[in-house]
Amino acid sequence: MYATSYHRASSVEDAVKTKATHDEGKYLSGGMTLIATMKQRLAAPSDLIDLRHIPALRGIKVEGRKVTIGAATPHADVAASRELKAVCPALCQLAGHIGDPHVRHMGTIGGSIANNDPAADYPAGLLGLGATIVTDRRSLVADEFFIGLFETALEEGEMVTAVTFDAPEKAGYAKFNNPASRFAMTGVFVAKTAGGVRVAVTGAGSDGVFRQAGMEQALAGNWSADAIANVAVDASKLMSDLHANAEYRANLVKVMAKRAVVSAC
């Protein structure tokens, strides 16, 4: 690991000010990806601005059907939240199956979506819920936030501060995970919201998380696993790697979508 300087921010304003004076600095949330890449000398930020100790960035608030989750909230807190489970148990279930206990207690929702790993779980959850990502500068709907592999709409120095969404009528998540990393080889989040049905897929797309329009249309007319049976999944837009080829992942998308619908019911 290359030498770096550590800063513990006490507020969002403090973090932004510190970042502005260190052009090669990086925000540090859970550090599940950043620290690992630094150890491999694939990343060498001059400074790390730790966001984990900013009270305004932590916690879960449920007001009626409106849910707000602070960006520095660990996965374990999301998984264990009784308030969130009462209105959106699918997101609790998703968070409870991220990595291992260490990852769940250190990793954060803001860090996960800012990194936008193509096999991460939260991008599918937030895209499926039609969530809004709040930063220190603006608000972005999930459809505009996730752009591609490890790429988001965040600008240089912009910080995720929270995510918000309206609790869905129904939602479910199912993933086929890599047994070693527990990343999703394919994961599907389905949700029936006030704005319609949304189906988001992670771990399979060659360009990262995406929505499956065919399944959305099918479930809008018939909310059941059977409705997905005849939906075609285009393998040409899916990734192939040493774990599974595109055709295998295309089948997994259908299987996981069916399981997610069953889970939602």
Break the fold down into its secondary structure elements and pairings:
Elements (H helix, E strand, L loop, with lengths): L4 E4 L3 H9 L5 E3 L5 H6 L7 E4 L9 E4 L2 E5 L4 H6 L1 H6 L1 H8 L4 H6 L2 H7 L6 H8 L2 E4 L3 E3 H4 E3 L2 E2 L7 E7 L3 E8 L6 E10 L2 E7 L7 E2 L1 H9 L24 H19 L1
Parallel strand pairs: 1-3, 2-3
Antiparallel strand pairs: 4-5, 5-10, 6-7, 6-10, 8-9, 11-12, 12-13, 13-14
List keywords for this structure.
Uridine Diphospho-n-acetylenolpyruvylglucosamine Reductase, domain 2; alpha+beta; Enolase-like, domain 1; 11 helices; five-stranded antiparallel β-sheet; 265 residues; 14 strands
In short:
This protein is an alpha+beta fold and 265 residues long.
Description:
The chain has 265 residues and is α+β, with helices and mostly antiparallel strands. Among the domains are: 1-56, Uridine Diphospho-n-acetylenolpyruvylglucosamine Reductase, domain 2 (2-Layer Sandwich), CATH 3.30.43.10; 170-264, Enolase-like, domain 1 (2-Layer Sandwich), CATH 3.30.390.50. The protein is built from eleven helices and 14 strands. The strands form four sheets. A five-stranded antiparallel β-sheet has the order 4-5-10-6-7. It has a four-stranded antiparallel β-sheet with strand order 11-12-13-14, sandwiched between helices. A three-stranded parallel β-sheet has the order 1-3-2, with helices on one face. It is globular, with a radius of gyration of 18 Å. The termini are far apart.
